Amino acid sequence: MRAPFRVALFGLGNVGGALARRLVEDADRITMAAGRPIALEGIAVAHPEGRRAPAPILPAAQLLAQPQFDAIVEVMGGLEPASTYIRSALQAGRQVITANKQLVAAQGPRLACLGPLRFEASVASAIPIVETLADTLSADRIGSITGILNGTTNSILAAMGDGASYADALADAQRRGLAEADPSADVDAHDPAAKLAILVMLAFRRRIDPSQIERVGIRDVGPEQIENGRQRGFVIKLIAAATTHDDTRIQADVRPRLVPIDAPMARVDGAMNAIAVDAEYAGSLIFEGPGAGPDAAASAVLADLIRAAKDAPASAGSLLATLADASPATVVPLAATIPYPAAS
Ligand code: HSE
Fold first, then answer.
1. Can you list the alpha helix ranges (DSSP code H) found in the chain?
2. How many domains does the chain fold into?
3. From ligand 1's centre to the CA of 291, what distance in Å?
């Protein structure tokens, strides 16, 4: 058997904790899948005082300076210091696995030029969409992507539909480890806009910045609107969608939309996500699954770790690297009626 694949973990919050548990409790199965043990040998956390962990807790700079690591896993979130740590690890020849959608959306193309960058967990957690777009569908031509890309807001809208207040529904999502540290990232749609930017770059092979995507969050969706929609046969969902018909511009936005009650997207409940991909040759594909939550995100991080340990190509990272020097594409919002009528 090959030597252990040695890993340092940056961040021990909900996702980091779930990943560390999985690496310990599922070690035999993971070794079998990777063809070698995956050894968690160091952890960096922002506030180490009194923390217990399954590997030594060390300062981030010390972990980055130690030469034995094959890879680092970044699950801290936020642009800094995550960006600095990732850049430093890639420049030192390590593989990097991240769940950080804000960072990948904004800096992924540049970072991926430095070395193998893997980010399956950055979009829709457990749904294997990132490598699917970059690898499985690499020779296809994708015309549109329509998705529910944020579990927190989907869960809030569903709970409000069942009579819960916005505040209680948000508190419940936070308790379940779905929401971002600052839930404005969820409810104001920064999070799904970043995820959509990543999907657009992978699917359309054009560089964009997440700030180019118009976003409307769910703060203004009230119980009356939800009830009114229901009476007319619609469910309100926060829809992230993008389409391109030619090489000149991309239409993309994130906003609450009225989804007909019998459409597959309407049935995507709670913290689930769904992504419909319209591909010229593969046809219409729908991916659905847990889009948020510690175990779901850890599952995707682990998939990347196993690929890294097996020296599988980092297809999505390589694709982003090809976009690093491209000028950003023009991005305009979608029409108010497409793919579904706007709800606000
Ligand atoms: N806050 C995110 C969500 C976590 O609710 O979808 C998963 O990316």
1. 14-25, 27-34, 60-65, 82-91, 101-112, 130-131, 151-161, 166-175, 184-187, 190-204, 223-231, 294-309, 315-322
2. 2
3. 7
